[in-house]
User: Fold this.
Amino acid sequence: MNRTVQIILAILIGIAPCHAPVKAEEVMIAVAANFIDASREIAPLFEQATGHRTRISYGSTGKLYSQIEHGAPFELFLAADTQRPIKAEEEGLAVPGSRFVYAKGRLVLWSVRPGLFHNAERFLKEGAFDHLALANPKTAPYGLAAHQVMNRLGVLDGLTPKLVRGESIAQTFQFVATGNAEAGFVALAQIREWEGEAGTLWEIPPHYYAPIDQAAVLLKKGEANPAAVAYLAFLRSDAARKVIERYGYGVE
Assistant:
């Protein structure tokens, strides 16, 4: 049986109901921090549908990729960009042809303080605050997008002394949620799950920053694991797409 047929059969087996006579496997997944809540909701749906199990690690896309390069046992990579999954293919760490965009991210400026700003662009230009949070633009695509927004508005140089950089978008969100930064650039998906005060929110126009296309790819370590192949297929299912859209992401 050739490899293509094996993969197709693995996908079909992997998305079968859990009562099917299939040996349950476990898949180790590296997931970008902005996708924490959505992935936690998708995981039990996948497990119920397939009988397979998931083990998920979260972090900034750049740091996760560094771990993959250094031999971390991840079998799937759900990044917050397309750059690292493409690089994984080029470096022989991922299965060619398995990559696809599973979500399109949205960047927002957010504060837990109600009415902190009424005109977000003026708020940024005036700079009447002590700390503004963003993810590290070197390792986190949402941080890079935040840089692009500030560059567009001509405020990056002036605000640099006030910037507080999180190692991931999850840490950035915590800076704002705890009040350690008056406001910050975070993912819309994170706000959808926030249960505290509504605060103040600016949904940044998408043309202010480069598209945040988030790609998933099957890593070579997961090529022979039916659970890894099945999860990648499930991520494109209607059930998963509904969850992804509910968190404010776009889907292709």
About this structure: The longest strand covers residues 26-32. The chain is about 40% helix and 20% strand. The beta strands are 26-32, 53-59, 76-78, 100-105, 107-111, 132-135, 163-166, 183-187, 200-203, 212-218. The mean pLDDT is 91.
